[in-house]
Amino acid sequence: MKNAVNWFEIPATDYERAKKFYSAVLGETISDFHMPEKKMKYGVFAYDQKSQGVGGAIVEMEGMNPSADGSTVYLNGGDDLNVALSRVEAAGGTVIMPKMNIDENGFIAQFVDTEGNRVALHSMG
Fold first, then answer.
1. How far apart (Å, rounded) are the C-alpha atoms in residues 117 and 119?
2. Fewest CB atoms within 10 A around its CB: which of 40, 66, 68, 70?
3. Residue 1: what pLDDT?
4. What is the DSSP letter of 50?
């Protein structure tokens, strides 16, 4: 097994708001792959498909409910976690755990996004 996680989905009640939030925080483009026949709005985060990197998406559809409870997804915080973390509140989210040193494993931080999901960032710097 190369990775314990292959794909993740972050629920949204307002797809466009969530897309704007994550684009601002990560400084990356979210690519639309909506499925109107399933009444689903779907946006894929940038990931390395060639090396079978872990990818994920924002999804708005019936039955997908944002939550601050349960599993936590750690997004790539880039080379310096402070950069992405500094964008969270300006984009409408709330930092709930500031940058924390986890020794040889780098740094982590957690936030609640515009949809009410608890999400985290990880970086080595």
1. 6
2. 70
3. 61
4. T
